[in-house]
Amino acid sequence: MTQIASAGVxxxxxxxxxxxxxxxxxxxxxxxxxxxxxxxxxxxxxxxRKVERLSGSSGRSGLAGGHVLSLVRRPSWLIxxxxxxxxxxxxxxxxxxxxxxVVQPLGAISLVITxxxxxxxxxxxxxxxxxxSIGLCxxxxxxxxxxxxLYAVETPLEERQLFVLLAILLVVLIVVxxxxxxxxxxxxxxxYISAAGVLYGxxxxxxxxxxxxxxxADIDFATIACLIxxxxxxxxxxxxxxxxxxxxxxxxVIAGLTVIDPIVAVIIGxxxxxxxxxxxxxxxxxxxxxxxxxxxxxxxxARSHPQVISESQExxxxxxSGPDPETPPESR
Length: 332
Fold this sequence. Notes:
Blueprint: E1 13-14, H1 23-55, H2 65-71, H3 75-97, H4 100-103, H5 109-122, H6 128-151, E2 153-154, H7 159-183, H8 189-215, H9 221-247, H10 250-271, H11 281-304, H12 306-313
Antiparallel strand pairs: 1-2
């Protein structure tokens, strides 16, 4: 790996597609994780909507305890959870051998797969506006990661940096939790998706930190604290994701996660962990523009998605002829 003296730390390493042969393994692992994420999101979304229909109560303002207990008895939701577990294993394996800023944004592939799956399952054919929104999401995030991968550096993390990261996460958890308590009756899918995306950005960063420290056999109080924080953020993010399935279609949820999650992770890496030490100003501008384009795509998709429009305005959208994946009623 090429040493960069200008970074100020002698152990800095350039992260590049040709400087790290492990990318040849990390990239396909990340892609496999994206496929499992797509399938898992579809099955979990079906399970959440099925539980709502059977219980006769909505979980849009937050899933109640009865919803959660019913979910763990739905085969479709359990299958989705198992698939998401496989996605997490692929993601962690990819993070173990490849840089975070290369691995994390590849989840955008799952947006395309989830869109096709959801269209087949619900009969809501993607419109030109929704396809344009998806294009903005994927295009923005790939431009973002391309330039991030060219200039990012990895440096050994000091305990001070880890505790600053944990302190920021604690503040985020408090702010998100307070916002949910205050606005839960009016919160829509975008709130839950945004909250989950921000939390999962911290989860990805902490996972990378924990993996690296375990690989270096550096298991101390800071490592254990990061592991505990990772579990807490992942649990809170998972709750918001399940509620988002109640408030919006799965491809909208995936769109938000695959845009917000990697952007948050890269921002943390660039600002707190020093991964942008060698990045020129013009590249930082590209990052901001590309991230903004992807975020605009998520907002556009939330407004133009045919399923969202159909459910909120009851417009006469032609349904597909395929069988309902949740029928017969009690078989899944």
